[in-house]
Amino acid sequence: MSEEQPKLPNRQTPFSEAFREFIPTHWAPYSDQMPERLPASIPAVERRRLLAEAFPGERLVVPAGGPKVRSNDCDYVFRPHSAFAWLTGLGADREPDAVLVLEPTDAGHQATLYFKPRVPRTDPEFYADARYGEMWVGQRESLAEMRAMTGLDCAPVSEFQAALEKNAGSTQIRVLRAADEAITARVDQVRQGCAEAQEMDQALEVKLSTMRLVKDPFEADQMREACRATAVGFEAVVRDLPEAVERGRGERWVEGVFGLHARHHGNGVGYDSIAAGGDHANTLHWIRNDGDLRDGDLLLLDAGVELDTLYTADVTRTLPVNGRFSEAQRKVYDAVLEAQEAGIAAAKPGAKFSDIHAASIAVVCKHLHQWGLLPVTPEESMGEDGGQHRRWMVHGTSHHLGIDVHDCAQALREDYRDGVLKPGMVVTVEPGIYLKATDLLVPEEMRGIGVRIEDDILITEDGNENLSAMLPRSAADVEEWMAGLLGETRAG
């Protein structure tokens, strides 16, 4: 449930009886026209069926979670737990403190969404509740409207406890523990004495992750749209690079430009954008984004738009700030591109997920050896007793992608890292080479160069589809693309 905010009596003005009588009067009636069904809620029906089928006769509790306090009496923007969104179709900032319950029946399971519907205008919540009141956060749905939007049976969240306790002694209950600590505590209280409770809940979490490994057609289309929106954001960043250089603190400018387009085209960014200029590109999770952008440096931009359905892209391009790669920059860039090409070629049905990394790393090691950086052969570095190449590429080449940027994270190793790629899976392919400015093993002219190239790859029946292919990848194509966006004319 929602984190409790502090009480601030010094800011609260009591409501007079005259106000209480006046405030509910002379409002237009609520519309009796039902909202349209959310497209994301339609494939959720089959997902709920498959989940329930895996746990016959058991009550399954999947909370949305609640708002978290950012500071004092201000909350972070709410985002529902990904599993809740996946099973209901509710994205964006819906639906704080809601709980989805799959109740076992003779015919399978009955799904009910317990949430906080809007109250009459005579209720103090309407004008006095800063988290749920209509005058504070806007008009909430009625039970009938939420049912129309989701296709789910709906009930007030105030009835959840009774539903939880119903036949508790004879009904096994599982809860998605990580979604809402308060709901988990209530479930644990009801099933006191169940020694296997945590193991049961872990199995539910693993199942919910594993089920998301293969995307359905709706999800694949959402991923395509997220990549298209992300490409718009990248183009906007390039157009504004001269402004970012001129104003100083250009990394923040880049972050802001992309964030503007992410918020306009979707729900926002799918993760904190990495806008890393120069040597900052060699810090893998550089999200401080407070540095300048300088003519002659590279900008590593790792960013993705999250749609209102919460599906997100995850794309990286490394761009010359002035539109032209130097000789040393191009040398590193071409090596990374060759590694990515090898990884993409390995991303096909029937291959292991780990084959992508192995193919990319083989190319990375080859170039590191040619540059005189590896103290051993490429084969030795790639062996179990080696790993020296990780000084210059410490991360993995791929992860699953979807409604979470690192999707399906609770799936078992045998289904994820050691799993076999299947049509419908979406993975990133993102090798990099990072040559820190302080690394004395690196030739001086290459120090401070960091390059990563990342695309979102949908596994198909006969190979793969690069969902982010609308953004150029080769050095020549990047330069030509940037020249067009910057209004330059290429010579020759």
TrEMBL record:
GO function terms (MF aspect) = manganese ion binding; metalloaminopeptidase activity
Q: Which superkingdom heads the taxonomic lineage of this protein's source?
A: Bacteria
Q: What is its EC number?
A: 3.4.11.9
The prosthetic group or cofactor this protein requires is: Mn(2+)
Q: Which protein are we looking at?
A: Xaa-Pro aminopeptidase
Q: Which UniProt keywords apply?
A: Aminopeptidase, Hydrolase, Manganese, Metal-binding, Protease
Record's CDD domains?
Prolidase (cd01087)
**What SUPFAM superfamilies has UniProt attached to this entry?**
Creatinase/aminopeptidase, Creatinase/prolidase N-terminal domain
Write down the top EC class of this protein: hydrolase
- Catalytic reaction annotation: Release of any N-terminal amino acid, including proline, that is linked to proline, even from a dipeptide or tripeptide
All copies of the Aminopeptidase P N-terminal domain together span 42-184
Which cellular component appears as one GO term in the record? cytosol
**A biological process term (GO) from this entry:** proteolysis
Q: Which family does it belong to?
A: Belongs to the peptidase M24B family.
